[in-house]
Design goal:
The complex is a heterodimer of chains A (163) and B (546). Chain A is an all-alpha fold. Chain A is built from seven helices and no strands. Chain A has a domain of 105 residues. Classes of the chains: A mainly alpha (163), B alpha/beta (546). The complex binds flavin-adenine dinucleotide.
């Protein structure tokens, strides 16, 4: 499976298609004061790789056609109009849209700049679970065991037919 | 077809059942050959060190084999469930979560208790010593003294470090006055048996490349191989052969590397291909061991409903082992609730930011557009999941058969699965959903999403329960009566006295607990019995009841 790339892979989309993908991922994940816009961290390249993996060379063309059918292309449209186009895409092509959104989210949250934003919110967050993991304080019976010991079980000899 | 020398015991499948059987018999000096259709899943294969690890969980590390479609997978013809398994050395332990509760004494006596499922031909007390020993063999963590289970010795390592979500859930359950206890786990909290303690990476749902979780290719197979067991990977068995007297003589398998058919003769055959693969293989072998017509029937998965909830306090549930604690408050039958059987509540962590944004457990993704980052700030690190896992009734119509339309890459008929939840189980799930909502209230959640796994019928009919089926159970159950079971209490086929079935298909009921500890304990018990009676089994013309 594709990893997020910091630069366009050579064999990727012609510039117009790449710009359209960049516009799309920025509508989905526009960025704010802390979080970067998706295109600035390369989510469009990740999306293109995923489309290629799932649907081959035709995937990108299909997406462009679907965007055009919803009122695109996005490039050249005002920001509010771009949102309307993507809303229409979501409504008319729900399965395609769900795939695009999933791939965009998964690509976005791989980006080092996004990890830095998550850390800036106060969370311990690593680019990958290993090798460091997240060491937590060990189990302390005095603090971590149940204080009130509840619970029961029926022993084999006690099992009777229920009324 | 090349004809190698017969081995003493041929084991088919290298998961928990096959691995434990191979170890016990090889340590006794028997010549054991294990045929496994998959290869090795090496530590470096796991995506834990990669930035795209979450995307991997939805693609190459997707637990649903029909969506993953790896080379060793076979298609499963079903729309009734989402079947999950892993075809490689160690089987499903390559991707399981290592949650390790035991069944309860009542799980073995459902016939006596309510009669909608049979009694097991053994009791909890008979299995208990094997539970204790498999804990030590595989390496577990946990805390003895839980009043909701019979007394047991300490686990080899203490409970795992509690994660933030576990603390919050414990407080909520205390507020409700409900039982909870640290979750028993096949994940080490301290170095043990040459394997390192868990470092809390939180990606348990993609397996464990460290071996802190008992992934059998790292924990048990090295011992079985050292004891002399011979493991043949990429070897997909297509048929078990028998002689005129009806005794098994060995198996024909496809060497997936070369595509050649090969023959492995054996004095004793042990089938351990799981509750889908085992009945499939018996059916492919001209309906072998099926005079009872029970092969493939009584497939169980557990009932599952879940809640994803978010609290104001941070819990950072992407940190720490995936399972937190277990509540047995509703585990025993109480007819006043309107159903038989019960369920456990299990607190669970989440994966990382990407999976959380895609909807994690609930399937409802985070909003896109301008609302996305506000959602993320509010929800990320504040959510966790609670699963309510119950005991589904064994039903003959829930079954594995052979598909008339799908074959695997070697041309063998794929399994077809029919599964429909019983009315009793639907009542159980509705009750459990209400309890999950209470947990969310008790925890002070600002938002909760309940997941019932109901799929609407496009034609307007009733919604169907389409479970994520990671617990594949039943289908070749053991019993006391050859007319209603496939094996006797020692896992020996009633029809083929030198054929054993030692895997998840042997289970008579599913309990309300994750099954791996029970599959392991049963395997140790069965393998030692086979070891001790192997001379009789080699000669046997019929299978005795005890
Ligand atoms: C995602 C996931 C999470 C889980 N989490 C937990 C958990 O936390 N706790 C718990 O208790 N349980 C859990 N389980 C369930 C548990 O892992 C399984 O029930 C258990 O491991 C099954 O063991 P087994 O030996 O019956 O079969 P398997 O582990 O499935 O092994 C069967 C093996 O047989 C091989 N095989 C099949 N057919 C053939 C053939 N024709 N020829 C050769 N080889 C063949 C397969 O390739 C496979 O390797 C989980 C399962 C999944 C999928």
């Amino acid at each position: 499976m594709a990893q997020l790339l910091d630069r366009p892979p050579l064999r990727l989309a012609p510039p117009a298609a790449a710009a359209e993908l960049a516009a799309l991922v920025d509508v989905l994940l526009p960025g704010d004061g802390l979080f970067p816009p998706a295109a600035s961290v390369g989510v469009q390249w990740y999306l293109a790789e995923r489309l290629r993996a799932a649907q081959g060379e035709a995937g990108l063309g299909r997406l462009q056609a679907a965007l055009a059918g919803a009122g695109g292309p996005l490039t050249g449209l005002a920001p509010a109009t771009r949102i309307s186009v993507v809303e229409r895409l979501a409504e008319h092509e729900p399965a395609l849209f769900a795939d695009l959104r999933e791939a965009s989210y998964l690509g976005y949250y791989q980006a080092p700049a996004v990890h830095a934003a998550i850390r800036a919110l106060g969370h311990r967050y690593r680019a990958s679970p290993q090798p460091d993991g997240y060491l937590l304080p060990p189990f302390d019976p005095a603090r971590d065991a149940p204080r009130v010991r509840r619970g029961h079980y029926r022993a084999t000899a006690e099992i009777r037919p229920h009324a | 077809m090349a004809a190698p020398a017969p081995c003493d015991v041929l084991v088919i499948g290298s998961g928990i059942g096959g691995a434990i059987t191979s170890l016990v018999l090889a340590e006794a000096g028997l010549d054991v050959v294990c045929l496994e259709q998959g290869g090795w899943t090496h530590p470096a294969d796991h995506p834990h060190g990669r930035s795209d690890w979450e995307a991997e969980r939805l693609t190459s590390w997707q637990p649903e084999s029909n969506r993953r479609r790896a080379a060793a997978d076979y298609p499963i013809d079903t729309a009734a469930e989402r079947t999950m398994l892993w075809n490689a050395v160690g089987g499903a332990t390559n991707i399981y979560a290592g949650i390790w509760p035991r069944f309860r004494p009542s799980d073995f006596r459902k016939g006596r208790e309510h009669g909608l499922a049979p009694d097991w031909p053994l009791s909890y007390e008979e299995l208990a010593p094997f539970y204790d020993r498999t804990d030590r063999l595989l390496g577990t963590s946990g805390l003895a003294g839980d009043p909701a289970w019979p007394p047991r010795p300490a686990c080899p390592t203490p409970p795992l470090p509690p994660a933030g979500h576990g603390r919050q859930l414990a407080a909520a359950l205390d507020r409700l006055g409900w039982h909870w206890w640290p979750l028993p786990s096949a994940i080490l909290s301290a170095d043990y048996d040459g394997r390192p303690a868990c470092n809390g990476c939180g990606a348990c749902l993609l397996g464990c490349p460290r071996g802190s979780m008992s992934k059998l290719s790292l924990s048990l197979w090295p011992k079985a191989l050292a004891a002399g067991a011979r493991l043949q990977t990429e070897a997909r068995v297509e048929r078990i052969e028998t002689d005129r007297s009806g005794r098994a003589t060995g198996a024909v398998y496809v060497d997936r590397a070369s595509g050649l058919r090969r023959w492995q003769p054996a004095a004793i055959v042990v089938l351990a291909a799981n509750a889908v693969g085992t009945p499939r293989l018996l059916l492919l072998s001209d309906n072998l061991a099926n005079s009872s017509d029970q092969v493939g029937r009584n497939l169980m998965h557990h009932t599952l409903v879940a809640a994803e909830l978010w609290l104001d306090q941070p819990v950072d549930a992407h940190q720490g082992a995936i399972g937190g604690l277990i509540s047995a408050e509703f585990a025993e039958t109480d007819r006043a609730r309107g159903f038989v059987n019960g369920f456990h509540l299990i607190g669970s962590g989440t994966l990382g930011a990407g999976i959380q944004a895609t909807g994690s457990l609930s399937g409802v993704p985070a909003p896109w557009g301008n609302a996305h980052h506000a959602w993320f700030r509010r929800h990320f690190g504040h959510g966790f999941a609670v699963l309510a896992m119950g005991d589904d009734l064994p039903q003959p119509a829930n079954r594995v058969t052979l598909s008339a339309r799908l074959t695997d890459s070697d041309g063998l008929a794929a399994p077809a699965i029919a599964y429909r939840s019983h009315d009793n189980d639907r009542r159980l799930m509705r009750f459990a959903l209400d309890r999950l909502a209470e947990v969310a209230t008790g925890a002070g959640a600002f938002e909760v999403r309940l997941q019932d796994y109901l799929l609407p019928d496009p034609a307007g009919g009733p919604a169907s329960y389409v479970p994520p089926a990671w617990h594949l159970l039943g289908t070749c159950r053991m019993g006391s009566d050859p007319a209603s079971s496939v094996t006797n209490r020692w896992h020996q086929s009633w029809d083929v006295p030198n054929l054993y079935i030692i895997d998840s298909s042997s289970l008579v009921t599913g309990g309300a607990a994750n099954p791996a500890s029970t599959i392991a304990a049963l395997a140790l018990r069965a393998a030692e019995h086979l070891r001790d009676h192997r001379r009789d089994v080699r000669q046997a013309r019929r299978t005795a009841a005890s």
